[in-house]
Amino acid sequence: MNLIVKFNSLFYLFFSQTFYRLLMFQFGSKSRIIKPLLILNYKHISVGNNVLIRNGARIEVVDPQNEVVIKIGNNVNIEQNVHIVARYLVQIGNNVTITGGCSIVDVIHPYDEINSEHKIGDRISQGAHPVYIGDDSFIGYGAHISPNVRVGKNCIIGANSVVTKDVPDYCVVAGAPARIIKRYCHESQSWKKVNHEST
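Structure tokens predicted for Acyltransferase:
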């Protein structure tokens, strides 16, 4: 690691530990956030220990319905240009990797009222549509996790997948909409292919 990279890493660690601990509901030790990025409603966000959030992220709490609306576990890395929007709850477990360009939302924009004076993007469903991502899961580049979805532990979400339904533990899913393509077999201690099983 050259001196400039090392200096930048130490700077963001020091800045994050000083600045975000004052603003957020919780901000764990050794966690750091790299600017530029957008964060809305800091006080409703909880970040665990040893978390890295890279530049370009948008982490937004809108119309908060709970004291903690976005909850990020320990040892999580959130890469460039990830967009997380939550109103009720987005909970990310421990040891999760979220690669670049992903989106995770618990907000639904109703479109049934075609004569509304408000554009669809400004409308927000008043229901609760929480999102959970289990421990040790990996979210591939450009994937989208839809409202009201639970991703189990040790899951792999393929690049550019659109996850619209729950994903059981120890599964690999891919596609739009995402389908289960592999499951981990504990007896053989190997991943087994699955044919045409939707989540």
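The longest strand covers residues 190-198.
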